[in-house]
Amino acid sequence: MSRRILIVDDEPGVRSALGQLLEYEGYEVKAVTSAADGLAEYEKWRPQLVFMDVKMAGMDGLEALKRLRELDRSATVVMISGHATIQTAVEATQLGAYDILEKPLDTDRILVLLRNLGQHLSLQEENARLRASIESRYEIVGKSFAIRALMDRIEKVAATPARVLITGENGTGKELVARAIHRESTRANKPFIEVNCAAIPSELIESELFGHIKGSFTGAIADRAGKFEQADKGTLFLDEIGDMSTAAQAKVLRVLQDGEVTRIGGSKRAQVDVRVLAATNKNLEEEITAGRFREDLYYRLNVVPLHVPPLRDRREDIPLLAQHFVNVLTSREGATPRSLDPSAIEALTQMEWAGNVRELRNTIERVLILGSGPRITGADIGRLAGARPVDGSPLGALLDLATFEEFKDAAERAYLLHKLRVYMWNVSETARGVDMPRSNLYKKIERYGLEREK
């Protein structure tokens, strides 16, 4: 607990006696004579604790407490009253007071209160640190146009109760989008429950979602609430919903229509208020055509579609992401502090990331663990990353080729394919850029079987 305490009381004797006691206990103390001065001093000084008299001339302590809590919801205030009543105590508690003390003040009680309050504030600070740590883990990093457009849509949809279907490749950050929607919504203080539909066997997915009654099937040794009930008043995130069985899809559709769930083996319906967010890396329209996904469920979920772009479409974010992962891994997970050399940034930017942001994070973690020296260099990336350059083959694989001729051919192929992409497959511009006769470039394109991606 920080050591700053503000006393707001119009009685000089109370201010003097309480101030002396607190200063003797090692606290930094300021005292003012009115509620208005107390509010002004709080804004300037930001103490960790306020002792506030209930009865004062002008604005009374209860009104000041109300305004103070509007100013700072985390403000910790102990009320002081010469005529404390049950009604006063109830009203002060309802307004957010931590405790109420009667005059004349009892020294022993104040010391006990300070000890308990110190433990309380320490827990609050620890919770705040843990919350900040969790939020940084799920932070969406990037300044590219694609990410800024995505964040804009998240901000717009978060404030509504609309269902959202999040699409994108594996590793692009679909869960981060779901968490951002929940965090910015009116349900932010309620549960966020995640279900990975691809990781749960089809015979267990219904029990996981809707719960079960004891004895309803082998292994059901007790009543158990499902994810829908656990997410009541909050958000349920159905990840990889394209892998859900059609039987479970039908039951999810029924819950979305009726707002009620029935546990397996039971007959009693439970009302639930759940916002459903869903994500998939599959093309659900193709899945519908193939008969693997219900069209009616698709339209229930796809009220607002959000697409998370792959890393190859937001390469300008790679330096920011790489530095973010270095900071997170070194500060929170105990890796040796390192910095990124410009050559490392260049190497990371030029690679293809089939696993998208998740693969980039894993790569940074591997380099931090296995690399040496204070800086991560381009050579470290090439030696340890195991990521893929633009020709699709691992960088490390070039060094494992049997002969020098094989190495030259593979390196030349990767280089030319990269340059053709840089120049948008304009062969003349590419030839000028690499200082090669255009006829030679055509021959090499034919030799290596280079083709423009569709």
What does this structure look like?
The protein is an alpha/beta fold. It has four domains: 4-133, Rossmann fold (3-Layer(aba) Sandwich); 145-309, P-loop containing nucleotide triphosphate hydrolases (Rossmann fold, 3-Layer(aba) Sandwich); 313-384, Helicase, Ruva Protein, domain 3 (Orthogonal Bundle), CATH 1.10.8.60; 395-448, Homeodomain-like (Arc Repressor Mutant, subunit A, Orthogonal Bundle), CATH 1.10.10. Helices cover 50% and strands 14% of the residues. Helix 1 (12-24) links the parallel strand 1 and strand 2 (28-32). Helix 6 crosses helix 7, helix 8 (202-210) packs parallel to helix 10 (246-258) and helix 13 (318-332) crosses helix 15.
Task: Summarize the entry for a quick read.
The chain is an alpha/beta fold and 454 residues long. The chain contains 20 helices and 16 strands.
List the helices and strands and how they pair.
Elements: E1 4-8, H1 12-24, E2 28-32, H2 35-45, E3 49-53, H3 61-71, E4 77-81, H4 86-94, E5 99-102, H5 107-137, H6 145-158, E6 164-167, H7 174-183, E7 192-196, H8 202-210, E8 211-212, E9 224-225, H9 227-230, E10 235-239, H10 246-258, E11 260-262, E12 269-271, E13 275-280, H11 284-289, H12 295-301, E14 304-307, H13 318-332, E15 339-340, H14 342-350, H15 356-370, E16 375-376, H16 378-384, H17 395-399, H18 404-422, H19 427-433, H20 438-448
Parallel strand pairs: 1-2, 1-3, 3-4, 4-5, 6-13, 6-14, 7-10, 10-13, 15-16
Antiparallel strand pairs: 8-9, 11-12
